[in-house]
Write the structure tokens for this entry.
Amino acid sequence: MPRQHSTGEKPNTVNPGKTSLNRRGVLKSAVAVGAALTGNQSLHADGRLGKLVKIGQRARSGQSALKQRAASDYARSLQAYGGRLANPIRDLFRTSQNPDSVHFSVVVIGSGYGASIAAARISQRLGDQYRMCILERGKEWVPGTFPDTFSAVSANASNVFAGPTKGQRARPLGVFNLMMNDEVNILSGNGLGGGSLINASIALRPNSKVFQQQRWPAALNNAEVLHPYYDRVASALSLSRTPFDQTPKVRIRRQAAEQISRQPDFFDRSNISVMYDYRYLDEEFRNSFGMIQRPCTLCGDCTNGCNVGAKNTLAMNYLPVAKHNGTEIYTQVEVNSIEKCAGYYRVHMTHIEERNGQVSRTPLQVNSELVVVGAGSPASAAILLDSQDEKLQFSPSLGRHWSGNGDAIGFVTGLPGGNNIGGFGAFQGQGKQVGPTVQTSLNFCDDEDFRKHLLIQDSSIPRGAKNLFSALLRDPELDHSMVMLGMGHDESAGRLVKKMGRWQIKWEGLKSSAYRQRVFRHFEKLAKAHGGRYKRLKAFGDNLVTVHPLGGCGMSDEPTEGAVNHLGQVFDYQQGGYLDAGTGELAVHRGLYVSDGSVIPTALGVNPYMTIGAISERIANHIVNNPEHSHLFSDSSFSGS
Ligand SMILES: Cc1cc2nc3c(=O)[nH]c(=O)nc-3n(C[C@H](O)[C@H](O)[C@H](O)COP(=O)(O)OP(=O)(O)OC[C@H]3O[C@@H](n4cnc5c(N)ncnc54)[C@H](O)[C@@H]3O)c2cc1C
Ligand code: SF4
């Protein structure tokens, strides 16, 4: 019997020093070989040679035992399906050949938290005779193959950075989806598992007052309604507390925090969805979903993708659940629009193939009784906006109230040293520990107004971006700097506009907003407490950068104020959003749902995937218990409001 990984929060069994793959330090030997070969004494003397060799080494990729093992673990876990979660695309080509038959009972668009959770829960209850599929734009990423050099990272950034086509999608299959707008740039994940592939996996729940804001639907004003759903997500993602209090960046951030406040909840070592169980260092460990995982090596590369197989991405939990329950998964399929037909929806999409730098696109379409849009923010809003016609009319608020979750990034430079924030990937770390990307949260509270609450987290720089940031911060070893990731409550005043044929976010006044100035003041304060200098990097311009896009299809009780109701059902605006204006009964497009970060109507002020997950669990629970779809589902197994 394979060993089962218990779910929910659990104590950590820690022995980071021990590793079954204790190989010679690649970097160490490279330095020694380089020095021996050149025999250059002056370079030896001041250590410049060592630095040059290290920089060169970081620019190269190559195989490592950890990477090979992670790739093989993944393939073995999914042996029953040919080693992959995704189905061969020919199955979809074949399906889509008959344009008039209803091929699927359920189509789920995207595979981030909202989509994967919906797919998993629906698949658990869908009758065996019904077909369901996931349509994901990006590709399937096997652990061990994530980009870990600057050139690989650039080659996997989906968009053009400069020139007249700036912001256009050049490499549609790259895992880093960068959306460049006038005031704010967005980084999100593109691939099977969505943002979970490249996120820092910090799991937080927001202040309960967030849900009491006027923009939220009344059914969610009491945060307790979501508690059972949060617990479900925590269990499926096997949250645990980051174990290493003594990694340099945690120790240094703690010292700085103590300069500012000694309130017990000011400094928090946050929960994270990473496998830390070092009892399974040498033995094979299968989690509750049958996926083989390995304990975290503290390499600091989470945001480039985990090449060790330690991060609990959606490909390690919810997506395998959907797969085990018969869901067909298609990747490299970009949904363009949805058409409402008599009793079903037709989903229009494009299959994307990239070979030798050439991109080819093939149009496809499938029909489905029920469609769950989970392409993330702002993509879900863009799909719906492009789908509007006489039969599919949406709320005028579709594409509005977009939020960057108050994200901001700052740096502290000029520190005495020993910080070690540079990731080393699935290579030898020369005994240094970086830790997972984010380990700590500082809570700058405001007792009078929770919207002034600011959260600042630490971060590492992944291996693939190490050379770039060491140059920008003038810190070759990334040993004298710290990162500050801020988030809070912005005004959610962004909106989607179509420019040059593509949807973009527009938010006048954002760059000079009072909120942004407040974040800068807090960054200054924290940098001072660290004993260093606050550095604002403007190398990429003055735009804000967010990794937490929210909204665009916000939930609301009012069809004029939101695109969906509290259950993710899309308002039908044909008659102003009402079935009957007299009774006030609301009209929704039957069988059309949104389940992802785009339904969140305000900033959350904390990292959002837990809340996206909880709301998606609730939407999925509604779908499988909705009498309108009862013919598709078997009996309920989970109760919750
Ligand atoms: C670097 C980074 C670090 C982060 N760290 C954290 C963290 O520590 N904690 C936290 O809570 N959150 C974090 N996040 C944010 C978190 O990952 C996102 O909030 C979350 O993934 C959003 O989930 P979602 O379901 O809304 O959509 P996403 O996860 O964005 O998934 C949407 C999916 O839909 C696909 N898609 C898009 N358009 C289409 C289309 N037209 N057709 C088909 N498929 C489509 C995309 O490729 C993607 O796979 C981080 C994000 C990043 C980028
Ligand atoms: S620190 Fe490294 S091993 Fe640990 S979860 Fe992040 S990427 Fe994976």
Observations:
- Residues 67-144+202-240+310-404+550-632 form a domain with the FAD/NAD(P)-binding domain fold (CATH 3.50.50.60).
- Residues 1-46 have pLDDT under 50 and may be disordered.
- The chain has 14 helices and 26 strands.
- The pocket of iron/sulfur cluster (ligand 2) is lined by residues 274, 296-302, 306, 308, 310-311, 436 (CB under 6 Å).
